[in-house]
Amino acid sequence: MDSSSPFDSIIFDLDDTLYSSKTGIGQSLKKNIDDFLVEKCGFPVSKASALRVELFKTYGSSLAGLRAIGYDVDADDYHSYVHGRLPYDLIKPDPQLRSILRRINQRKIIFTNSDRIHAMKALDRLGITDCFEQIICFETMNFNLSKATRPEEIPVILKPSMEAMNIAIEAAQVDPYRTLFLDDNVKNIAAGKAVGLQTVLVGRSTKTKEADYALEIVTDLVQVVPAIWFKEEEKDQKITRTRSEMDFVATTAVGA
Ligand SMILES: [Mg+2]
């Protein structure tokens, strides 16, 4: 029996994946975005919630939507307003999650649409910052944004766009076919599958078409994806074998 792990790397979404959507953080975030739409952009209070929902559906986030329709909203100002005042104390340390992450020998990477400051604060509250070698976040995908002369000139890049997925794979330097990707968003999981990642839908007990696995909570990983912990040394042998086989195939193909 081949007992080597099929995964070299594991990419984790952050919000509603590594901590539960029931913390109340998500509710506070919605309220802060509504306030931003009213206070900073001048929309009527009665329209703010519906607009937030519409912008999220159409553009992936309120920031992306506001810029796309011509509002010159600075990403850092937006993030410090909507994330900066979140009640982070609602996120509690998760020693069980920490223990599981510490037992995963593969590379572990965060991939979030949120900004870096938010990611660092949330990971710090959970007590798992040192479990990850890299954070791929809003700034990674949108390093170009400040160069836009008009807000709609350079679109905001976020999951689930293919561009975002490809930036993450490039930044993380992973082979998508040997990478496990966890996210709570069905569209993100579909995008992950489209770029070749092996996918885990978090927060649900049933899989969608593009999900290889489904977990109610992230700590169920141990029971649902035991292949993560298959032996390392056999994996190394397998990589060597697979590489030489691939070289052979490539040579043959060129010669043919
Ligand atoms: Mg999420």
TrEMBL record:
Pfam families: Hydrolase (PF00702). InterPro entries: HAD-like_sf, HAD-SF_hydro_IA, HAD_sf, Pyr-5-nucltdase. Signal peptide: none annotated. This is Protein SSM1. It comes from Solanum tuberosum (Potato).
